[in-house]
C-alpha cells in the first residue's frame, strides 16, 4: 500500500488532465461526474449541491479541453444549463489548437420539447446540437432547427454509438460527457467510456439518488486502470481508464 494523502505536492489540474484520450475511428469520450462518499450523484435533485470551488475549477478545465460537451436533456434542465463560457485566454488557447472558442453542447433527447427562449439557446456562442430519434414529429424538427443543429441517431431511442459517430463526422475529436447517470450507463453499455473523471465529495447525501452509472447493465465487471489522484479541500479527484 502507498500513502497518497496527506503527503502531496502542488499540481496544476491542467497538467494532470491535458492528456485527453485518443481513440481510433471515433471521438474519445471522457466522463466527468461528482459523487458523495455514500455514492449519491445528487442532493435535492441536483449534482451541483455536491460541488465546491475545487470541483468547479476542474469542471472548467475539462470543458476547456474538449471539442463537444455531451449531456442528457434531463440533466440539462435540472442543472439549468447555459451556454459554455470560458475566459478569453482559454478561448485563445483553444483557437491556437484548432478548436472553436468554446465547445458546443450536444443534448441527448427523446423529444424536441424545449423552451427556445432560454439562454442555453438564445445566448449560445456555438450553436447547440440536439441528438434525437426518428420518432419525433416532423413539425418539431422544423422548429428545433431554427435554434440548434438536429442529429437523428436512432429510431425510437438515441443510439449512443450512432450519436458519437455523428459528432465525429462533424469534426469532434473529443467529447466530455456530463451525465446524468442514465446517459453514463448507456455510454458504458456501448463501450464508449474512454476515461472516467470522478470527483469524490467529502459529503454524505443519503436519499435515493441514482448511482454513477444507472439503467444499463454491463455483461460483466469492467476493470479500470487508475491514472491519477488529486486532492483539494477534502475532495478527491480520481481518473480512470479501461484496463484493456
Kindly describe this structure.
The chain has about 240 residues and is α/β, with parallel strands linked by helices. About 25% of the residues lie in helices and about 25% in strands. It is built from 8 helices and 9 strands. Strands 5-4-3-2-6-1-7-9-8 form a 9-stranded mixed β-sheet, sandwiched between helices. Strand 4 (about 130), helix 6 (about 140-145) and strand 5 form a beta-alpha-beta unit.
In short:
26% of the residues lie in helices and 23% in strands. It has a nine-stranded mixed sheet with strand order 5-4-3-2-6-1-7-9-8, with helices on both faces.
Please indicate the count of domains: 1
Percentage of β-strand residues: 15-25%
Instruction: Enter the CATH topology name.
Output: Dihydrofolate Reductase, subunit A
Largest sheet composition: 9 strands, mixed
> Which regions have little confidence, pLDDT < 50, spanning 5+ residues?
none
Provide keyphrases for this structure.
single chain, 244 residues, alpha/beta, Dihydrofolate Reductase, subunit A, 26% helix, globular
Amino acid at each position: 500500500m502507498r500513502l497518497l494523502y496527506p503527503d502531496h505536492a502542488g499540481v496544476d489540474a491542467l497538467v494532470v488532465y491535458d492528456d485527453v484520450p485518443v481513440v481510433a475511428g471515433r471521438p474519445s469520450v471522457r466522463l466527468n461526474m461528482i459523487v458523495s462518499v455514500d455514492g449519491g450523484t445528487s442532493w435535492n435533485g441536483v449534482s451541483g449541491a455536491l460541488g465546491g470551488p475545487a470541483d468547479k475549477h476542474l469542471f472548467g478545465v475539462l470543458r476547456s479541453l474538449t471539442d463537444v460537451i455531451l449531456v442528457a436533456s434531463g440533466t440539462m434542465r435540472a442543472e439549468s444549463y447555459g451556454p459554455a463560457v470560458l475566459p478569453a485566454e482559454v478561448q485563445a488557447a483553444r483557437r491556437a489548437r484548432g478548436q472553436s472558442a468554446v465547445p458546443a453542447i450536444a443534448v441527448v433527447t427523446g423529444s424536441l420539447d424545449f423552451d427556445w427562449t432560454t439562454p442555453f439557446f438564445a445566448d449560445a456562442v456555438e450553436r447547440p446540437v440536439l441528438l434525437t430519434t426518428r420518432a419525433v414529429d416532423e413539425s418539431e424538427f422544423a422548429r428545433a432547427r431554427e435554434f440548434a443543429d438536429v442529429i437523428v441517431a436512432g429510431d425510437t431511442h438515441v443510439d449512443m454509438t450512432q450519436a458519437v459517430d455523428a459528432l465525429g463526422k462533424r469534426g469532434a475529436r473529443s467529447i466530455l460527457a456530463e451525465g446524468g447517470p442514465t446517459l453514463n450507463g448507456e455510454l458504458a453499455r456501448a463501450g464508449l467510456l474512454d476515461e472516467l473523471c470522478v470527483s469524490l465529495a467529502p459529503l454524505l447525501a443519503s436519499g435515493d439518488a441514482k448511482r454513477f452509472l444507472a439503467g444499463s447493465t454491463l455483461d460483466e465487471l469492467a476493470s479500470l486502470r487508475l491514472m491519477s489522484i488529486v486532492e483539494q479541500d477534502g475532495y478527491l479527484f480520481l481518473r480512470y481508464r479501461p484496463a484493456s
